[in-house]
Amino acid sequence: MPRNKTTFINLLVELPWWVSVLVSATAYVMMAYVLPSIQTDNQITDAVFQAFVIPAPYIAGLILLAAPFALLNTRRKAIQLDTQRNIQTVRDLHWRNFEELVAEAYRRQGYRVTEGGYGADGGIDLELRKDDLVTLVQCKQWKTQKVGVNVVREMFGVLTAHQANHFIIISSGTFTQQAIDFAAGKPIELIDGPKLLALVNDVQVSPQVTIEKPKVCPKCSGELVERTAKRGPNAGNTFYGCSNFPKCRYTE
């Protein structure tokens, strides 16, 4: 997904609260004590270093303001994960919240998670690190459309370019059989809606998720997915259609 440019304060808000405290303290010590104590042969440089004493408390205080917001942001992400109940609540999330949900789930599994900031096309949404292994994650919150093989091929190229150990593609929907076949035998893991729910359920403080068995098409044994009619007398109403459409046009 496209991302806006991240400011320094926004970055601090996304990080643990103690990072803001540490950066604030470091900035104050550097500006109020370290730089003014440096003596050079240039009087202008010395004057500039001495001048840092004046804005030091203000800049440190501004950085410190990010700490409570970071704490609230961390709490919000935790609540967001712990209140998920089924695949529909996951699909109702905004795409950015969907990425946060996935990030928080892996964070609770002991991964060091870096969110976003890898490019305007969103090729990499998360970076996971554990035991010196690097895993890249792409989040696809596709509700009615299957993730095709082209996406998996593209991410395999990204995996190779970044020399990572593993790549995970996560969707709240499903993957085409071609995508599944292409990923087989490669360091690529495909996590669909049911697997994502199982992941969320495993890390919730008090498991809330209801994992439902997917509806099966009686004609071709494909999965029935929920769709919304876009036109006709039933426009706006939801129905179940076969995921193998247009080869199979079964609905209910």
Describe this structure in words.
- The chain crosses the membrane at residues 12-35, 47-72.
- Pfam families: Mrr_cat (PF04471), Zn_ribbon_Top1 (PF01396).
- Keywords: Membrane, Transmembrane, Transmembrane helix.
- With 252 residues, this protein is α/β, with parallel strands linked by helices.
- It is 45% helix and 15% strand.
- It has 10 helices and 7 strands.
- It has helices at 8-14, 17-37, 43-51, 56-64, 66-82, 87-91, 95-107, 149-162, 177-183, 193-203; strands at 112-115, 126-130, 133-140, 166-171, 188-191, 224-228, 238-242.
- Helix 2 (17-37) runs antiparallel to helix 3 and helix 2 (17-37) packs antiparallel against helix 4 (56-64).
What's the overall geometry? elongated
Give the spatial strand order of the biggest sheet. Answer: 1-2-3-4-5
- Any idea what the radius of gyration is? 24 Å
In the CATH classification, which architecture of the largest domain applies?
Answer: 3-Layer(aba) Sandwich
**CATH topology of the largest domain, anyone?**
Trna Endonuclease, Chain: A, domain 1
- Helix and strand content put the structural class at alpha/beta
Global mean pLDDT: 87
- The poorly predicted ranges are none
Discrete helix count: 10
Number of domains: 3
Instruction: Bin the helical content.
Output: 40-55%
Strand content: 5-15%
